[in-house]
Amino acid sequence: MSAPLLEQLIDALRVLPGVGQKTAQRMAYHLLEREREGGKRLAGTLAEAVERIGHCAQCRDFSETELCPTCANGSRERSQLCVVESPADRLAIENATGYRGVYFVLQGRLSPLDGIGPRELGLEQLEQRLAEAEVQELIIATSATVEGEATAHYLAQLARARQVRPSRLAQGLPLGGELEYVDRGTLSHAFGTRSEVRD
Amino acid sequence: MSAPLLEQLIDALRVLPGVGQKTAQRMAYHLLEREREGGKRLAGTLAEAVERIGHCAQCRDFSETELCPTCANGSRERSQLCVVESPADRLAIENATGYRGVYFVLQGRLSPLDGIGPRELGLEQLEQRLAEAEVQELIIATSATVEGEATAHYLAQLARARQVRPSRLAQGLPLGGELEYVDRGTLSHAFGTRSEVRD
């Protein structure tokens, strides 16, 4: 005899990030008690999404069509190419800035110990795009971690080899950040890369 | 044109309790990036669960069969009936105690302002069970809130009217609780209902 359906549901909910036994249980009860309609809709959408959402052929972002809406959009500036680690990073930049160029999503970062090399990040595809001569600036927006920095270094080399200008997001104090509470590394870096104040 | 599937998924995930826009987004990306199999299983189990899980005809707990496994179990003690507010409470008692009796799940508590009266809690059904003469003790395990107490009071009256002995879970200091950090109400109650120490 298989486990009761309720237990199966609690177990299945645990694939969600940050959801343990207790939370999964609370979610299952909530759905059954008060949100059967929403639960049904979630089940349907989720089934369709894992089935139909693939990757954009050009930028590797999630997309249900061959090209994602951004890549398919003719009015985006193709001379600027912004490289990010994940779709979530892409979305954050899209929402926070007025950037009108296009993206390339690595879906990870160089991490030899985990077996993630240039191949896994689709860097051959990126090189092809750099070779197409449309791209003039490669904006490297990988994260400011050790692995992110290593990836950025590698990407900058790729860009220079193709006569593309690499750039990197500015590092320093976060806006509104109190000096006292900023971590040592950031403070030291910001101090070292201080810029002259002009009138 | 409808919203992209990914946005629909993020929106659908927000029916889960405690999940806002940011968490839903993180969950959607996690499922698509690393847990497509788990996502598919979750979708299937959820669809089946909201469809097939109903209520036990006897105790009103969630059940996929007419009688839940506990009610259908012939070896449970039918002279003890424990009333709880929710399926989660029932599970907590079942896991923490060695209770061998049966349950009755109110699926709520008396709350006239929200339109929840004896009818909504299935108290007619409970009265019928009390009338069947099998039940000797009604263990009232509603929560220690104002509404829970009111419900407990009402249930105790029902039990007495049917010559059934009502009982209520003990209230006092939680095990391992430091006196200093216990709330005033609990401390005052525990002090007032102190019991004599016997050798």
TrEMBL record, chains A, B:
One of its GO terms (biological process) is DNA repair. The keyword Zinc-finger applies. The keyword DNA damage applies. InterPro entries: DNA_Rcmb_RecR, Rcmb_RecR, Rcmb_RecR_Znf, TOPRIM_dom, TOPRIM_RecR. Residues 79-174 form the Toprim domain. CDD domains: TOPRIM_recR (cd01025). Transmembrane segments: none annotated. It comes from the Bacteria. SMART domains: TOPRIM. Keywords: DNA damage, DNA recombination, DNA repair, Metal-binding, Zinc, Zinc-finger. Coiled coil: none annotated. One of its GO terms (molecular function) is zinc ion binding. A zinc finger (C4-type) spans 56-71. Belongs to the RecR family. NCBIfam families: recR. HAMAP family: RecR (MF_00017). May play a role in DNA repair. It seems to be involved in an RecBC-independent recombinational process of DNA repair. It may act with RecF and RecO. This is Recombination protein RecR. It comes from Stenotrophomonas lactitubi.
